[in-house]
Amino acid sequence: MKAPKRFPTTADWAAAAQLLRRPFPVTAPMVALVSLVPVYVFIPELVRGRALHAPALVLDRLLPLRPGWALVYGSLYLFLILLPVLVVTGAEHTRRTVRAYLLVWLAAYACFFACPTVSPRPAQVPGDGFGAWGLRLLYAADPPLNCFPSLHVAHSFVSALTCLHVHRGLGLAALLCAGLVGASTLFTKQHYVVDVVAGALLAGSAFVVFLRRLPRDEVPEADSRAAPLLALGILGLSSVVLAAFWVFYRSSSTGGT
User: Fold this and answer.
1) Mean pLDDT over residues 192-200, rounded?
2) Which pLDDT score, from 0 to 100, does residue 2 have?
3) Rounded to whole angstroms, how far apart are CA atoms 257 and 245?
4) Which secondary structure element, helix H or strand E, spans residue 83, and what is its range?
5) How far from 177 is each of 3, 182, 233, 243, CA to CA, in Å?
6) In whole angstroms, what is the distance from residue 163 CA to residue 177 CA?
7) Residue 53 pairs with which residues in a beta bridge?
8) Topology of domain 68-244, per CATH?
């Protein structure tokens, strides 16, 4: 029996480069998904004046605010957004993945309208470090609404679950990243525990409906081998983006003194 490869070969790197050069066909469901994203910003205006719910549990009050988790929140969420774009290559797999995303986004929007909630974020973020600066930036960019279910968590878990069909190890690592995204939403006080649980359950439902029965043997072996290398590249890109924010933070802090 042939021993499994432990390190990437020249063929693996060539396969990764080939995937980066492949055409990315744009379909109507993809356009619909991208078109849904800006709606997120306008929902708070549409529910203005309505009663806002705060489904806090005892556990929510026990979890402390940890501004540094904003860095985890931003960097890993970016990683999980980009990961399926590069590693999911099959036409049927892509169609089902897009439909899974559409399901979680549409279901989340319906909940945002039916049961508007407000996040448990504090009035002010304590501290002066990079993490506190990043959390203030996050609060300024994301309104404290659209909480139940957590769309960030749902989207992250769909990304991880669809990558399981490409490479099991990568999919499991992505699931860990999705779990960290969920934890980060709690420690940054972006969401309540029930929001995170609902987001994960929503992603699981989308997986059952669209992705569970997708045959794994339809993924070419070369694509499966190349997937971890592409993931490393995306992690590198996320690190560069995080470093750019750190440089901006340092320059703004120096300029303000």
Assistant:
1) 98
2) 43
3) 18
4) helix 69-87
5) 29, 9, 16, 19
6) 12
7) 117
8) Vanadium-containing Chloroperoxidase; domain 1 (1.20.144)
Q: Give the sign of the dihedral formed by CA 38, CA 39, CA 45, CA 50.
A: negative
Mean pLDDT of 156-169: 96
Residue 27 and residue 98 in contact, taking contact as beta carbons nearer than 8 Å:
yes
User: 3 pLDDT exceeds 60?
Assistant: no
CA torsion sign for 162, 163, 169, 173 is negative
Sequence spans of domains, the chain: 68-244
Query: Exposed, middle or buried, 227 (CB in 10 Å: 0-12/13-18/19+)?
Result: buried
pTM beyond 0.85, yes or no:
yes
Mean pLDDT, all residues of the chain: 92
Cβ atoms of 16 and 226 within 8 Å: the answer is: yes
At residue 192, the 3 state secondary structure works out as coil
What's the pLDDT band for 255 if we cut at 50, 70, 90?
Answer: low
Distance separating alpha carbons of residues 63 and 59, to the nearest angstrom: 6
